[in-house]
Amino acid sequence: MDLNLLWHSLRPLVFRFDPERAHRMTLAALARWSERFDGRLVAGDPAHAHPREVMGLRFPNPFGLAAGLDKDAEAIPAWQALGFGFIEVGTVTAQAQPGNPRPRLFRLPEDEAIINRMGFNNAGADRVARRLRRLRERDLLQVPLGVNIGKSKVTPAERAAEDYRYSFERLGELADYVVVNISSPNTPGLRDLQRVDEVKRIVETIQEPNQRLARPRPLLVKLAPDLADGDAIDCARAALEAGCAGLILTNTTIAREGLRSRTEGMAGGLSGRPLQARSTALLATVREALGPEPTLIGAGGVRDVPSARAKFAAGADLAQVYTGLIYRGPGLVRELLEALD
After folding, report:
1. What is the spatial distance between Cα 163 and Cα 170, in angstroms, rounded to a whole number?
2. Burial 272-281 (b: 16+ CB within 10 A, else e)
3. Would you say 45 and 337 are in contact if contact means Cβ atoms under 8 Å apart?
């Protein structure tokens, strides 16, 4: 079955629904599909395998699902079946929270972009941990699983490190790697944590329980594209000094330059094609500053073969997809893998 052809025939119908409702409907269908499987579900197509060893983990291919699409780890087997080489769930917070008032998700079809101000809506660390434990017990995970953690909205900034630590203590041993998200524009004050002292404090607080695990998990920090280059490099170095394996570059942007679409009343983070240039440029800058050793995951604007190649040319070890999947369809990963062949 040509998944892209199927999606392009269905997309006009799906896009008639409110974006958040369409997201929930799609995720619910994928979750039901996932629940059908009592045994292993093959991850991708072995004919297009491109394994990579990164952070001490084996990735069957370098394309992953970015955080935000499956916040509560509802459809992991389905994402594997679509060919993803790794899956990142979340953002998960210590406390369950409903997120920001609706509407909070907007499509910009002319720009192949999305604006979201979801606000870390999720079921909370305890509930997500129970779901991941069941998946582990059923031995359904065949690709590396990342868990993206953020600060609960009600937690004051001075207690942010303890909030992240709580989430890590519940989720760390169930993940293959953990991402510290300090860069979403949709939680008040969160981006203020993108300072050298805060980065070190948060990562070092998480490292205490991490180092007690039989296999400490690789930690990464996710940064915003709106940081000045020098500030991003300083935060990246602080993360590495505190024991991180690398970084994810980048989160969504609050910039609106060059858009064709009208965005009045659409506050939030912009993702998709307009983010590709800045996120890739910052990735290249950080790679040049840090050298070849740290793991860098490229996110932002991966939607086709040229944009994926640009991430790797800029120094990414792995790349993540989110908005491109919505506009290009579920066959995107296989299309990218065929191009790698």
Report:
1. 11
2. bbbbbebbbb
3. yes
**CA 202 to the chain's CA centroid:** 19
Q: What is the pTM of this model?
A: 0.95
Omega into 103 within 30° of 0, i.e. cis? yes
Q: Which residue has the tokens 């170095």?
A: 237
DSSP helix/strand/coil, 295:
strand
> Does residue 1 carry a pLDDT above 90?
no
H or E element that contains 306: helix 305-313
Q: How many whole angstroms separate alpha carbon 195 and alpha carbon 261?
A: 33
Query: Which of 183, 147, 149, 184 has the alpha carbon at shortest distance from 163?
Result: 149
Band (2; pLDDT cuts 50, 70, 90): low
DSSP secondary structure code for residue 157 in this structure: G
DSSP string, 61-79: SSEEEPTTSSTT---HHHH
Structural tokens at position 90: 């979340």
Rg (the chain; Cα; Å): 18
pLDDT band at 39 (very low <50, low <70, confident <90, very high): very low
- For 114: left if phi > 0, alpha if psi spans -120 to 50, otherwise beta; the answer is beta
Peptide bond into 250 cis (omega under 30): yes
Place of tokens 């609106």: 256
Which class for 137: exposed (0-12), middle (13-18), buried (19 or more C-beta within 10 A)? exposed
Residue numbers annotated as active site: 184
**Token pair 């007690």 in the structure block, residue:** 212
Residue showing tokens 């990414």: 316
For residues 301 and 272, the answer to whether their CB atoms sit within 8 Å is yes
Question: How do residues 115-148 score in pLDDT, each as one tens digit?
Answer: 999 999 999 999 999 999 999 999 889 999 999 9
Q: Is the pLDDT of residue 271 over 90?
A: yes
Q: Which helix (H) or strand (E) holds 247?
A: strand 246-249
